[in-house]
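User: Could you check the structure of this?
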Amino acid sequence: MSDAREVLQGGGYGGPSQREDGENYLRGEKSLRLSLGRSHSQAADTLDIIDATADVQSETSRMPVNAGIARLRVLSRAGSISMPVELSVQTSTGLHRGVHMSRLVKAANGHRSGTMEQWLRWICGEVNRTQPGSSVTATFELPFDDQFAKITMRATQRGAVTHRYVVEGMTACPCSKKMIGIGHMQRAQLTVVLKSEKALDSMSVVGRISECFSASPTEYMKRLEEAKKILEAQANPRFAEDLVRECVSRFPNALFVSSRCYESIHAHDAIATWSARPGWMPVL
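Assistant: Sure, the predicted structure tokens are below.
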């Protein structure tokens, strides 16, 4: 700033072009000060025109719909362990125009003690205080061994909680095994939908699902361990259909079971499904 004034007064740098630069600098500084002054003034004026009593969501509507928030990521804590959970919270508008979504976010970021199922029910209870009819869906990844299982839970304030488990494994083909003594191998996936009034031991559930595969994948293996893993799968060849049957036998109260094998010698996948109610598919 002092340099610019010296230029204008003929000192310091002194040339015509430098004098012009100094004038531009001072004009720019003056313009910035005026702009900042207007911004502060506009902010103060804005506070005077805000109608804090406006509640558009509470306007009447002729038809209730379910609405809410999705893909809200929060941290769930279990002891000293924290893991990200993605939440979807919905409730009925009743005969109002909209849902107060900030209340849903506040509930989702509240109390987190107890089991996952208890936490989801608590969220619904908080929402139902002012906006009854809520449900909440939580999706997260559960670490087990050196793998991760994808788990989704859907709950209301009372009643059974619906659980969906997606677990990765591997299979060896029984057909090629029978024909040439070696079954081609591929990764596979099992999806199991359960419903329970009580909290489930998810680690136990994932372990039982893993037993249905020819073998379970492992990330770190030396050559000898890889060879043993192949032999383990070859000794227990299974079709996609076999995976479903094995799973249903372990979870006779399941609502739905499906398998998908990512075929290694085909460009397509092999799939199989079973439902406690023929034709029913889960919406989780």
